[in-house]
Write a structure and sequence with these properties.
3-stranded mixed β-sheet; 8 strands; 5-stranded mixed β-sheet; about 50% strand; mainly beta; globular; Immunoglobulin-like
């Protein structure tokens, strides 16, 4: 997924399987994070334009919320749904 200065991910919903790799690519000029609500052990941080991070995680079937934890980012719309089939 990509983070833009518009404070949104490139999609509002993503789909995946239980064992997956998530990535965050910063195309803007702000720092961003990627967290999964309820999964405290997973966090990606990109700080500069062109910065990219990836991380592996195992999730059970269900629906999860992805978000940026930086002040004001989530409230501005930097949130998406992740559906694990």
């Amino acid at each position: 997924m990509q983070a833009f200065d518009t404070l949104k991910f490139d999609k509002s919903e993503y789909e995946g399987k239980s064992d997956l790799t998530l990535g965050l690519f910063d195309q803007g000029s702000m720092q961003h994070t990627l967290l999964i609500e309820g999964q405290e052990s997973f966090k990606l941080v990109v700080a500069d334009r062109g910065d990219a991070k990836v991380g592996d995680i195992f999730l059970r079937r269900g629906t999860y919320t992805l978000y940026c934890e930086l002040p004001g980012h989530r409230a501005a719309g930097m949130e998406a749904t992740l559906v694990i089939a």
